[in-house]
Design brief:
By secondary structure, this protein is an alpha+beta fold. 24% of the residues lie in helices and 34% in strands. The strands form four sheets. The chain has a six-stranded mixed β-sheet with strand order 6-7-8-3-9-10, sandwiched between helices. It has a five-stranded antiparallel β-sheet with strand order 13-12-11-14-19, with no helix packed on it. Strands 2-1-4-5 form a four-stranded antiparallel β-sheet, with helices on one face. The chain is globular.
């Protein structure tokens, strides 16, 4: 089928005098792993629940596979949701939890058995198929919840911060599991997160929300390297934001000029710490003093103070072949590669 798998047309959600999601449009293609990213209260979970049919929109339409499903409940949409709390049936075994949905849907018992075995293999839970949820680890419970949703063969799998309750090590492992599952089934995943690192690692497209609106969308590299606003620059990773002024569609900074179409006036030049160099030959250079050097494992975090008091963060690899650093208090010259700089409103 041509066209997007999911289309949202001017969809919004208002609670009395509070607008949780302002009217917005969004299209999701087949096979996308889309992240809805933003701070708490920005509307991302509300948007996910409207896609899944758990909340009726105040305005707009939800189309899945070219069909208007706006008025349909979750049981009548070709979607399934994995909640943060898993929602497993405590009195059912792993296999029974996975097979419950197909049983209620009236599928053939023999096919259900085959589907359950396939899901157990997919999420590597064959050895615990007869255990109750209380006997499982958090990661295993998460995989049961995923298998229970995937066994229904949804066109779109919706994930509401599914890894938020896991510790850091298990969270990283489950990120790998999710990527492998997405690759194995070739499905379409939409997941909500407030963790920008998780979104960058998992998604092929990121939609960033602020105060109920979409403020930028694109590939992880797009939103990281080319932020559209100060909010995006600060929310997605670390960012240096240097005051400057735009005149005649250009910004002068550090002895160089950046093309910057737009209205003349104050702006911010954004550059990521890993893009700042100590290369004195760079066409854009800033002089400062090394104020601090911190070892962060794979990289060193340098803080350089400019003459006007502005502090610039620099990330440098800390491997054995890394170039020697100047000492704290020494003068340094920072290089800002023009291609790595973005210009946003202050």
């Amino acid at each position: 089928m041509s066209g997007p798998l999911l289309r949202l047309d001017t969809i919004s959600k208002t609670y009395r005098d509070v607008t949780a999601v302002h009217p917005l449009d969004l299209e999701v293609g087949r096979g996308d792993f889309l992240a809805l990213l933003g701070p708490s209260g920005c509307g991302k979970t509300t948007l996910l629940r409207m896609i899944g049919g758990f909340l009726p929109p105040t305005t707009g339409r939800v189309e899945i596979e070219g069909r208007d499903v706006t008025a349909l409940g979750p049981e009548k949409r070709n979607t399934n949701m994995v909640f943060q709390g898993y929602g497993l049936f405590p009195h059912m075994t792993v296999a029974q939890n996975i097979g419950y949905g197909p049983k209620i849907a009236g599928r053939d018992p023999e096919q259900i058995d085959l589907d359950v075995v396939r899901m157990l293999n997919l999420v590597h839970l064959n050895a615990v198929a007869d255990r109750l949820p209380a006997a499982l680890s958090g990661g295993q419970q998460q995989r049961v919840a995923l298998a229970r949703a995937l066994v229904m063969r949804p066109a779109i799998l919706l994930l509401d911060e599914p890894l938020a309750a896991l510790d850091l090590k298990l969270r990283k492992a489950m990120q790998d599991e999710l990527k492998a599952l997405h690759k194995a089934i070739g499905g379409t995943f939409i997941f909500v997160t407030h963790d920008q690192g998780e979104a960058i690692d998992l998604a092929n497209r990121i939609v960033i929300m602020e105060a109920g609106r979409i403020v930028q969308q694109g590939t992880p590299e797009d939103v990281y390297r080319r932020p559209a606003s100060r909010f995006v620059a600060s929310f997605v990773g670390d960012a240096n934001m240097l005051p400057a002024r735009r005149v005649g569609a250009e910004v002068a900074i550090g002895g160089g000029r950046l093309p910057a179409p737009g209205v003349d006036g104050d702006v911010l030049v954004v550059i990521r710490p890993d893009d700042v160099t100590l290369d004195a030959t760079c066409p854009i250079g800033l002089d400062g003093t090394l104020a601090e050097c911190r070892f962060m494992g794979p990289y060193q975090r340098l803080t350089v103070t400019l003459a006007d008091g502005t502090q610039v963060i620099v990330h440098r690899p800390s491997g054995a072949d890394a170039a020697p650093l100047p000492g704290v208090g020494d003068a340094v010259r920072l290089g800002l590669p023009p291609a790595a700089c973005s210009v946003v409103a202050p």
